[in-house]
Amino acid sequence: MIGVMGGTFDPVHFGHLRPALELLQGLSLREVRFVPLNVAVHRLQPQAGATQRAAMLRAAVNGQEGLTVDERELQRPGGSYSYDTLKSLREEMGNDEPICLLLGSDAFAAFLTWYRPEAILDLAHLVVLQRPGEQGPLPAALSAWSEQRRCCNASELTKMPGGRILFREVTRLEISATVIRELVSEGRSPRYLLPDAVIDIIERGGLYRSRSHEQRNGASTVARRAKDLRR
To answer: What phi and psi values does residue 168 have, to the nearest 5 degrees?
Structure first.
């Protein structure tokens, strides 16, 4: 049984990584695949390029057994739809191994507006990540629809390749990729919000920097060089 976690990962941070690790271990998954999207359908397009986001993901999971990066959406033109990704995974893996699509409760609240939601559930289980004690109300239609497919025990997911919905408590770290990008844009450190290896890629690539910050850095560099020449 594998888990699939999609997103922009712009950039990947501990709010993605910690729940993935907990589900890898707690659900006895063979692996969790991070699938960075190419073209966003229901959100703003990512700021970092596909190659950069994939590199940040690979750096983030390096050395952690069971966490991997799957770049199939980056290699597929057009909008990135979970249905297409799960369909291609099912074609590769066959019809028997369970696949779990991992998604946050906010994303699940809009699930019935996704492209072919019923078909998605035919291809995989849904594992909805919740904060400890979180019992927020669902839209009425979604509540009725999900109740018919809900299971209470992770072991039930292993008995069929897809079709069930499990709500699972995980450590939800209140970390925002938007805030990280803003910090970098303002010239402030995002350290302790994401792995140092990811920060290194951001710094080396000059990602998320505003023009004013680049100009300040450029002026500082010129000033330092001039000072060195006077010595």
So the answer is: -130, 125
Domain residue ranges in the chain: 2-169, 177-230
From edge to edge, which strands make up the β-sheet containing 150-151? 67-69, 31-36, 2-7, 99-104, 125-130, 165-169, 150-151
Per-residue pLDDT, 210? 81
Comparing C-alpha atoms, which of 80, 85, 69 is closest to residue 198? Answer: 69
Res 212: pLDDT: 53
Closest C-alpha among 154, 157, 213 to residue 183? 213
Q: 3-class SS at 204?
A: helix
Torsion-angle region of 21 (φ positive above 0: left; ψ -120 to 50: alpha; else: beta): alpha
Least confident of 28-37, 85-94, 178-187, 207-216: 207-216
For the record, the structure tokens of 164 come out as 């069930």
Pinpoint the alpha helices (H) of 27-149. 50-61, 82-93, 105-109, 117-123, 140-147
Nearest Cα to 163, choosing from 103, 86, 99, 112? 99
Average pLDDT (160-169) is 96
What CA–CA distance (Å, rounded) separates 227 from 159? 70
Assess contact for 161 and 95: CB atoms under 8 A: yes
Which CATH code, of 3.40.50.620, 3.60.15.10, 3.30.420.150, 3.40.630.30, is assigned to 2-169? 3.40.50.620
